[in-house]
Amino acid sequence: MVDVAERTPDARVLPMHRRCPRCGETKPTSGFYWLKLGRHDRYCKECRRALTKEWRERNPGRHDGLKREWSRDNPAKVAFYNRKSRYGIIREQYDALVKAQGGRCAICRKPAEPLDIDHQHSTKLIRGLLCGRCNRGLGHFQDDPALLLAAAMYLLSAGSTWWAGAWWPAWALGPDGRPNPPHASGDG
Ligand SMILES: [Zn+2]
Ligand SMILES: [Zn+2]
Questions:
Q1: Ligand 1 being an ion, which residues bring their Cβ within 5 A of it?
Q2: Which domains does the chain have, with CATH numbers?
Q3: What is the DSSP letter of 87?
Q4: Each residue's pLDDT tens digit, 76-127
Q5: CB atoms within 10 A of CB 19
Q6: pTM assigned to the model
Q7: What is the CA(186)–ligand 1 centre distance, in A?
Q8: CB 3.0–4.6 Å: which of 83, 96, 129, 158 could bond 91 by disulfide?
Q9: Residue 115 C-alpha to ligand 2 middle, in angstroms?
Q10: CB neighbours of 34 closer than 8 A, spacing ≥ 6?
Q11: For the chain, first and last CA: distance in Å?
Q12: Phi and psi at residue 10, in whole multiples of 5°?
């Protein structure tokens, strides 16, 4: 990576960068906490964390008190964060997804409560809602469509005993209730 701080001592030259007055480093804005639209913290994340830690050490016990006070003054926000942490998405989004799938698993179509949120691991995008059984099933096959297809083919053909799952007319069945092997009939 290019050392931005060395080349541009003044952060104002690069609009996407800021210079932290504490450590003196110039970092991209992602290195600063976002306060509100268009406004970033004055200090970089590392410095802000250090400052917060120092403040807590200088004011033992005050942090818990302030946290409690804030929770009491912002019940709606507390409820929002609780909902969000439970599902990784806010409750309203989850409910909308459940409704869109009719409360049923996207694979087996059976109703399930609750439905698991199935993420694509690489992108963290939500693929859909699944029942626990199907969700674990995908996991067992490493979320690999090729493996899952191979498993389906296995079940449909080679892996199963050759008579299983097929419907056989009565005349094709032997005395043991199983169909006569095709090569054993003689006059085929
Ligand atoms: Zn800093
Ligand atoms: Zn299912």
A1: 20, 22-23, 44, 47
A2: 4-59 (3.30.60), 76-140 (3.40.1800.10)
A3: H
A4: 777 766 666 555 666 778 888 899 999 999 999 999 888 888 988 787 788 9
A5: 19
A6: 0.42
A7: 87
A8: 83
A9: 9
A10: 40, 41
A11: 74
A12: -100, 115
Ligand with the closest atom to the CA of 108: 2
Residues 143-152, buried b or exposed e (16+ Cβ, 10 A)?
eeeeeeeeee
CA neighbor of 101 nearest in space, from 91, 93, 111, 92: 111
| Ligand nearest to the CA of residue 5, numbered in listed order | 1
Amino acid identity of residue 187, one-letter, is D
Residues 113-168: pLDDT tens digits?
888 889 887 877 889 999 999 999 999 999 999 999 888 887 777 555 555 555 56
Length of the chain: 188
